[in-house]
């Protein structure tokens, strides 16, 4: 996965663009590795299948999001649109794997509590804000409000995800 990200990033990255994106991608990949290592130590292997898929889908989605935003910012519309379309596929994978994680944990619509409903809503808001940021950047309109909402929703979604059963810091 790391080689694919580096290849995609180096193919379309402009040396004149924002170097911070590279650091963000490396940071996300390091967090992903640490989460999976911690998760493997605390859970049995049967519980890991969909959670691994969900975490990996989020990580790949975030990496694609930052790559696409960097490309839109540097004016590379054609490659950015391609990455954006791939990201849209990952939105579906993220949502589907989230539903499968809930199913794997034994939940259905009748026995979800408020925290799970909040996590579902925050996850959908995060995906929606990722899309809104990229659409605004593509149209070269201000996206500051959507960036702020995206960051807040992302942080809350991650914190709630690691706190709930199936997460790393299950209380």
Summary, kept brief:
This protein is mainly α. It has six helices and no strands.
Structure notes:
- There is one protein chain.
- Helix content is 78%, strand content 0%.
- The chain is globular and about 45 Å long.
- Helix 4 (77-104) runs antiparallel to helix 5 (114-138).
- It contains six helices and no strands.
- The model is unreliable at 11-17 (pLDDT under 50).
- It has helices at 2-12, 20-42, 49-74, 77-104, 114-138, 144-163.
- With 171 residues, the protein is an all-alpha fold.
Tags for this entry?
171 residues, mainly alpha, 6 helices
Strand and helix map with partners:
Elements: H1 2-12, H2 20-42, H3 49-74, H4 77-104, H5 114-138, H6 144-163
Helix pairs in contact: 2-3, 3-4, 3-5, 4-5, 5-6
Q: Give the C-alpha Rg.
A: 17 Å
Order of helices and strands: HHHHHH
Distance between the termini: 31 Å
The percent of residues in helical segments reads over 70%
Q: How is the main sheet built?
A: none
Q: Which blocks of ≥5 consecutive residues have pLDDT under 50?
A: 11-17
Continuous helix count? 6
Strand segment tally: 0
Estimate the global geometry from the Cα principal axes.
Answer: globular
Structural class comes to: mainly alpha
Mean pLDDT comes to: 78
Strand content: under 5%
């Amino acid at each position: 996965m790391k080689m694919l990200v580096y290849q995609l990033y180096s193919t379309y990255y402009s040396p004149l663009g924002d170097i911070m994106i590279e650091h963000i991608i490396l940071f996300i990949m390091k967090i992903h590795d640490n989460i999976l290592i911690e998760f493997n130590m605390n859970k049995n292997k049967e519980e890991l299948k969909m959670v691994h898929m969900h975490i990996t889908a989020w990580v790949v989605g975030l990496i694609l999001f930052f790559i696409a935003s960097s490309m839109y910012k540097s004016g590379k519309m054609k490659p950015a649109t391609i990455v954006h379309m791939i990201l849209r596929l990952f939105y579906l994978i993220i949502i589907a794997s989230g539903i499968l994680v809930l199913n794997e944990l034994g939940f259905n619509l009748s026995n979800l509590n408020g925290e799970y409903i909040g996590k579902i809503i925050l996850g959908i808001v995060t995906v929606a804000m990722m899309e809104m940021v990229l659409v605004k950047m593509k149209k070269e309109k201000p996206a500051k409000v959507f960036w702020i909402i995206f960051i807040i929703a992302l942080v809350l979604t991650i914190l709630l995800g690691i706190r709930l059963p199936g997460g790393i810091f299950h209380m």
